[in-house]
Amino acid sequence: MEESSIMLKPNEEAIMLNERIKSNGQIAVNAVCNIGRDLRRMKIEELYTYLGYSSFEEYAEQEHGLKRRQAYQYISVYENLGEAFVQSNAQLGITKLALLTQVNSEDRAEIMSDNDLSGMTVSEIKTLIEKVKRQGEQLSMFEEQISNKSEQERELESELAELKIKADKADILSSRLDDMNMNCDRIAEQRDKAESKIRQLENTIKELESRPVEVAVSEPEIKEVIKKVPDKKAIEDKDREILTLKNKYKALDEARIEEAEKLKASYEKRIAEIRKSTEQATGTEKSSFKLLYAEAYKSCLGMIEFIKISEGEERELFIEKTEQLLDIVRDSLHG
């Protein structure tokens, strides 16, 4: 028994020991920070050379009995956790604190709040840290996948917008083509009427020329009739104009159809790529459902936009297939 315990009453000795434990505990807390801070400065400024050592590792082991790994643990804890955190949790020991440097501040705070690290072994904490790191890697992977999906969705929406613009332009061109066809038909009708009038006037001239001398008409009268005959060159110019217009708008119509087919194929390819990428995605059920739901929603919007620009029998077929798909989904959910 210590001499002081002989001289003190039990209650006085209890108070003294309690205060000593608190003091030593605070010294231990400060020691972790101080050792880490001073070792860091000794290494960075190479102050150990003034003590006759050629390397920091040699200095740490010879002067303080710290192996290379232990010395760097003190420095890492001080640099990565900060003085305030280390002072608050110094009771965990340098090994446990060094393990906490392997995760970010958010994960570290969550680990500290959900677990009593002081009651866990180093092995248990190491296992917990590895689990958190794996979850973080999976989360990063999903965030990257979601980011990529968002980019693909933006590209798809941009393509849909362009498709809509081009479809509107195609409708305008189609309307103009219809107007030009009507003009061509009107010009052709005028040409037919002119040709008919020419034939009538030519017959009239022949009739006048074939009259007997006594009833023959004068040359001025014949010339007056000939003046009424339409210019054949003007008719030929109209024919050429009609042919040029027909060829021009036929080419435009064919180009419009070809462009629409290309856009349709490109759109279908983009949808297939996104669906394929979605099928390859892995992760938690909740994250997977959100990702699949987002893709299904975008795909449905894309399908609706595609159906809107379709025409004729194809449009009816696409609507029928879409309704069948919705029936299958509904039956599967409730079946």
Helix-strand pattern: HHHHHHHHHHH
DSSP helix count? 11
Spatial extent as radius of gyration: 47 Å
In total, how many domains does the architecture comprise?
2
Mean pLDDT over the full residue set? 75
Number of strands: 0
Biggest β-sheet strands, sense, barrel: none
Q: How far do the termini sit from each other?
A: 81 Å
Strand content: under 5%
Low-confidence stretches: 1-5, 213-217
Structural class comes to mainly alpha
Question: What do you see in this structure?
Answer:
By secondary structure, the chain is an all-alpha fold. The protein has 2 domains: 99 residues, no CATH class; 199 residues. The chain has 11 helices and no strands.
Write the layout of secondary structure elements.
Layout: H1 3-7, H2 10-44, H3 56-64, H4 68-89, H5 94-100, H6 105-114, H7 122-209, H8 219-227, H9 232-280, H10 285-309, H11 312-334
